[in-house]
């Protein structure tokens, strides 16, 4: 039954429908108000687009810092704040503090949540102690802590409504991702692929925190939540035991396939979309087979978790090309016909356009011309290898074998894009993609599994492509598979993008610059150096009739792990420390929210 709840502190959105069965209706309605930013990606479709246009291409060059807020935490600050009416909710990396700020009272701290977590979780966090943000629904703020506790906080008071443990840090499972609220459930993934965790997405009841369903990335059909006949890949039934047939023995039990990226949702189709990560271990010789369903796009019914379709992008991964990046949902014409599309910029360097209803593969093209491990995807529907990438033997770590250093592989393990989310503008019908322009040497070695210990089995080094010095590009991409424009950056662009109706696209750099560029041409219109490197996602909101742009700075993440964790061995941080050694010449640690506005 619907009921109306008045929540004074939620300002402009003070009265709305909150019956838990209608939580997504509430969020859809709230996300249509461009003054707020009520979901981690702005909306269910993960477009990271705002209809606000007070700040536009003609005046963005006049932006000034309006206010700042120190989080009191070092290490990498990924994600971004939520803005709901007068309230802003800011999160931090470990120890995962959450601040509630009243924007109408000079950003007064209304409440602060600071969990007490065992610091032993820090060493089992693969690539810095990051957290990608909180979610909102049913009057609660949802946080996935590093120790895998999913906690529901009262949005008005910060009091814990319920909490539940989503995994076992003692076996290497950790929490870094942002939840997604759908209907009467909150969905969350898990990290731990570098520790041999059998990974999953889990749905919890919004009111009580009770587990409703859990879908694993690999294992028997009943654990996968698949139907051998009804669940399809590229239009064909996946068949019985589709996963365990592609693993040796019981290796699927420590198979990885983690789900620490972004989730999106189509209310019309009632499907949730997300990707799974690398199979464990990084040594491909130790896990023969396609290792399904790691490296896979899943389309699931959020009511019961059943998968409608799947698509494995990188079978038998040999390079750690996790498939967890966001799925952006758009309704666009394709070959002259209106289509419900899903666009995914994968770590493997290929951008995929799919029909999100059927799972049909429409486009698979390189979005960095230096990608060399594959010549492309077999797009011949009558071919026995349809939908599979064609691997170049020279860059196959499987062909090279254990203790052989395969050199010059592009992209590096952190991919042409990692978790840093792209944005889409319906005005230009372009995608704006922060990318890594990085290659690697990769040497697999034999490793044994011990619960709670690293299960990697490879040594890496990273560097720019041969003959080049820049390690990042910020690009505009169209859904037919073309780069429209590309801006070089000295380091990887590890910040999430924001597109706006003002014809401006924002992103941050690892040195700490917030940049604004023209959405049509890529021309740089504004930049400002924040206190630390930016790996956070840019957001925008309106308060008191004024548009603001906000971004977390605080260098870290995989690219900045050397600075964040004080590492100096070039091969540490899974190869990132050496690749990004020069970053320390440009920025230092520090967690700060910087908010920009036009002058009065």
Automatic annotation (TrEMBL):
**Stated name of the protein:** Methanol dehydrogenase
Annotated cofactor note: Binds 1 PQQ group per subunit.
Signal peptide positions on this chain = 1-23
| Active site location | 320
Q: Name one GO molecular function term.
A: oxidoreductase activity, acting on CH-OH group of donors
Q: Name one Pfam family in it.
A: PQQ
Location of region: Disordered = 384-406
Q: Which cofactor does it need?
A: pyrroloquinoline quinone; Ca(2+)
Gene3D superfamilies membership: Quinoprotein alcohol dehydrogenase-like superfamily
> Quick one: which residues bind Ca(2+)?
194, 278, 320
Q: Which CDD domains match?
A: PQQ_MDH
Keyword Disulfide bond included in the entry's annotation: yes
Q: Where does pyrroloquinoline quinone bind?
A: 78, 132, 176
The family note in this entry says:
Belongs to the bacterial PQQ dehydrogenase family.
In which organism is this protein found?
A: Bradyrhizobium icense
Listed disulfide bonds for this chain? 126-127
Looking at the record's lineage, which domain of life comes first? Answer: Bacteria
Q: What are the residue boundaries of the Pyrrolo-quinoline quinone repeat domain, all occurrences included?
A: 37-367, 494-549
GO cellular component term of the entry, any: membrane
Q: Which UniProt keywords apply?
A: Calcium, Disulfide bond, Metal-binding, Oxidoreductase, PQQ, Signal
């Amino acid at each position: 039954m619907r009921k109306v709840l008045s929540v004074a502190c939620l300002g402009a959105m003070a009265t709305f429908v909150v019956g838990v069965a209608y939580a997504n209706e509430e969020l859809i309605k709230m996300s249509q108000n461009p003054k707020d930013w009520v979901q981690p990606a702005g909306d269910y479709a993960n477009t990271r687009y705002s209809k606000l246009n007070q700040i536009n291409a003609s005046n963005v060059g006049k932006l000034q810092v309006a206010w700042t807020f120190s989080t009191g935490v070092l290490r990498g600050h990924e994600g971004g704040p939520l803005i709901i009416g007068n309230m802003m909710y800011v999160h931090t990396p470990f120890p995962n503090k959450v601040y509630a700020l009243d924007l109408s009272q000079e950003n007064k701290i209304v409440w602060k949540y600071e969990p007490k977590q065992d610091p032993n979780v820090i060493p089992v966090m693969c690539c810095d102690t990051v957290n990608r943000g909180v979610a909102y629904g049913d009057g609660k703020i949802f946080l996935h802590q590093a120790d895998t506790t999913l906690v529901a906080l009262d949005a008005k008071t910060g009091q814990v409504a319920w909490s539940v443990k989503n995994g076992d840090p003692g076996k290497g499972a950790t929490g870094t991702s942002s939840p997604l609220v759908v209907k009467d459930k909150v969905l969350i993934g898990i990290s731990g692929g570098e520790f041999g965790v059998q990974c999953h997405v889990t749905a919890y009841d919004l009111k009580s925190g009770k587990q409703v369903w859990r879908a694993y990335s690999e294992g028997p059909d009943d654990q996968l939540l698949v139907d051998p006949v009804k669940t399809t890949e590229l239009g064909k039934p996946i068949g019985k035991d589709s996963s365990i047939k592609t693993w040796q023995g019981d290796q699927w039990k420590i198979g990885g396939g983690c789900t620490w990226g972004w989730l999106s949702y189509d209310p019309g189709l009632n499907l949730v979309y997300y990707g799974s990560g690398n199979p464990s271990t990084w040594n491909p010789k130790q896990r023969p087979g396609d290792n399904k369903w790691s490296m896979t796009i899943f389309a699931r019914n959020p009511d019961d978790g059943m998968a409608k379709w799947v698509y494995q992008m990188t079978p038998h991964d040999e390079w750690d090309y996790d498939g967890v990046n966001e799925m952006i949902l758009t309704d666009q014409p394709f070959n002259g016909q209106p289509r419900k599309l899903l666009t995914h910029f994968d770590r493997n360097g290929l951008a995929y356009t799919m029909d999100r209803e059927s799972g049909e593969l429409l486009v698979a093209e390189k979005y960095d011309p230096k990608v060399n491990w594959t010549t492309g995807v077999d797009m011949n529907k009558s071919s026995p290898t349809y939908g599979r990438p064609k691997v170049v033997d020279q860059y196959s770590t499987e062909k090279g074998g254990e203790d052989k250093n395969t050199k010059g592989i592009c992209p590096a393990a952190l991919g042409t894009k990692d978790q840093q989310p792209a944005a889409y503008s319906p005005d230009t019908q372009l995608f704006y993609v922060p990318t890594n322009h990085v290659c690697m040497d990769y040497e697999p070695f034999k490793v044994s599994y011990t619960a709670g210990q690293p299960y990697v089995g490879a040594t890496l080094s990273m560097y720019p492509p041969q003959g080049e010095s820049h390690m990042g590009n910020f690009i505009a991409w169209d859904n037919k598979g073309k780069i429209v424009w590309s801006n070089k950056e000295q380091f990887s662009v590890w910040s999430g993008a924001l597109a706006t109706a003002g014809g401006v696209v924002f992103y941050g750099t690892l040195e700490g610059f917030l940049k604004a560029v023209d959405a049509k041409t890529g021309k740089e219109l504004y930049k400002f150096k924040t206190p630390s490197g930016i790996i956070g996602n840019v957001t925008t909101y309106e308060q008191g009739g004024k548009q603001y742009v906000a971004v977390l700075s605080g260098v870290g993440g995989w690219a900045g792990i050397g600075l964040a964790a004080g590492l100096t061995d070039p091969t540490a941080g899974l190869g990132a420390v050496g690749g990004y050694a020069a970053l320390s010449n440009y920025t230092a640690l520090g967690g700060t929210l910087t908010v920009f506005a036009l002058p009065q």
